[in-house]
Amino acid sequence: MANATFYIVKPDSIQASETGFEQYILFLAQHFAKQGAKLYIQCQDKAHAERIAECFWQVEPEHFMAHNLVGEGPKYATNIEIGHQGVKPTWNRQLVINLADSETTFANKFNEVVDFVPCEEKAKQLARERYKIYRQAGYHLQTFEIEHK
């Protein structure tokens, strides 16, 4: 059965800031990649994808994770691929980290979906809509509050 996990971003958490949230994405990507997952990070648009890709370059050398933007890199890509609405991963991925606020049509292509419930009210409503879509698609749903320091 496919799973969708929503992480709730608390207003008083480090992840409530843009930089803190981006660091959490790196943490999750590293966590899943260490487990051998082939993951795809779905961004809002090309500029957002490029900003997230740049975050991967800003880590200490010992924490570097091979990654690429869709359409760049080796023929079969790396374990971490970053894309945005309107492009598709270049090869089979098991897990998607969704950073886009409304795109969920890709979800049925992945066994695992990681999504977020942001602090801002409009963004929360969009997360609720995504939650409903995942449920209707037959995903097993779970939620967790982010507790990463």
From TrEMBL:
GO biological process: DNA replication; positive regulation of DNA-templated DNA replication initiation
One GO MF term: DNA binding
InterPro entries recorded: DNA_pol3_chi, PolIII_chi_sf
Top-level taxonomic group: Bacteria
Protein known as: DNA polymerase III subunit chi
Lineage: Bacteria, Pseudomonadati, Pseudomonadota, Gammaproteobacteria, Vibrionales
